Predict the structure of Aspartate--tRNA ligase.
Amino acid sequence: MTQSRTHNCGELRLADAGKTVTLAGWLENMREVGSNLAFVVLRDFYGTTQVVIESEEMMQAFKPINRESTISVTGVVRERTSKNPKQPTGEIEVVPESVSVLGRCRYNALPFEINRSKEADENQRLKYRYLDLRNPEVKKNIILRSNVVADLRRSMTERGFLEITTPILTSSSPEGARDYLVPARNHPGKFYALPQAPQQFKQLLMTSGFDRYFQIAPCFRDEDARADRSPGEFYQLDMEMAFATQDDVFAVLEDVLPPVFTKYGKYKAASAAPFRRISFRESMDRYGSDKPDLRIDLELTDAACLQDCGFEPFAGQTVKAVVVPDFHKTRKFIDKLCAEAEMLSGGKAYWFRLDENGELVGGISKFVAEKKDEVIEKLGLTKNSFVALAAGKYGAAVKTAGVLRKLLGAQVEGHMDAERYEFCWIVDFPMYEIGEESGELEFCHNPFSMPQGGLEALERAHRGEIDPLTINAYQYDLVCNGVELSSGAVRNHDPEIMIRAFELVGLGEADVKAKFPAMYNAFCYGAPPHAGIAPGVDRMVMLLAGEDSIREVIPFPMNKNAQDLMMDAPSAVDPKQLADVHIAIVEDK
């Protein structure tokens, strides 16, 4: 072992009985059961060992030591009379001959119980993250993360990918999220940006003649937190391949990921290659989401037959239904379901039932009554069917129906095979969309993607022969259990196609050259066709660990407000530091 210990706290077994050993770790607990008898739990990275105090001398040596102090104990191993089969070291105990304090805990009270830290307030956990990480249940997620990253790295290397690191200080790039800016001391008024992704650099590597690139890449985006998104910083398995098609990228990940999920996942069943491929439009129509959870067997149904049923919110709108057969939940359940769907989607949810007598009851049933036979036929209803409904413009209707599908799948028994990892590819994303805020034509996903139909499709859009919104791109997402693991694309490597693609969103050749000078110029020197993707490491480990929050698998995460409570970041800085980088703070009036 090391100078300060002969064994770790998870190592000793019955075969070690009689040995004199030295252990080092944290004093987790001390339970006194008599004047000269106490049981101490000693914990380190590897596990716990019971230390039994049986003398007044040792009792006096241990009593002044606060819990969570680091100590060194030397003693003799012996067989336990009361064994603990749930503990790896449960057949032995150590009778101490000496104890020394290596690092004293100076506080009698802890912010939370170490072994129950996951029950504590999250901000307390993050402020004292170094204590939170002492909890074996928390620590195991970080160990899992390390093992997964090591396996991913080895697997990519075995497949001929070179690990190449790309710059952290770079230029600002319009990639869909806000940049973190870094002032340049030697260039007053100018800023570096932390990379939202190594997108341009990995494409430049392809133009440089590197055939297969990857890295476990840090990415920085000034975004709000979600359960599956950490604010500020995240990591992804970034990869790119030269002379590659969409199918080539799919083949690599379908080879790399299933063994990792099978080996490390909480659930041992994972999709085998090839993963199912679903077009963006089909995914929205059938599942109400571009990241469908395929463990749920429910689907959206077109309920256009209800547009003229006399219910005003349905008139002239897209109406989508989610039908649940053999439904026996209460009205209280239904009301809660509709309220939750409305909160999550922003859209109103409606419902009715076909009861055991074949009668329409509840919700909006009175509006459906006159079309009963048609509705039963079109929606495929059987007795005791429940019908959840959403209506509005297409996007709003499918979004609300998709939320209803997800809630019903998770809350109604028999409609979700929860203990498995179900992968799929979402393909054929639209190249363009109308921006919610701008109302103008914008790139839907990655602006560097190759449009399907190439230059000809873009020229037809410029001539007004086709609507730009009908142009699809060679863009794809990898989805697992309703979580988007990554986005990728076949890249636009032709400068002429790139310019025409940007012109449709109002950016001309001069703009492209100014915003992406390196990439544009590099492509002018003969770039190979290339494609790539970047699965999120944090989300991957979250799924493998079966955690609901991504912060549980990040060693030192920020809170929901993008604050590091442990390091007090962001924080004010000295005025001289601001002067050095030519920045003045202007107070918000």
Q: What stands out?
A: The first helix runs from residue 56 to 62. The CA atoms of residues 235 and 397 lie 34 Å apart.
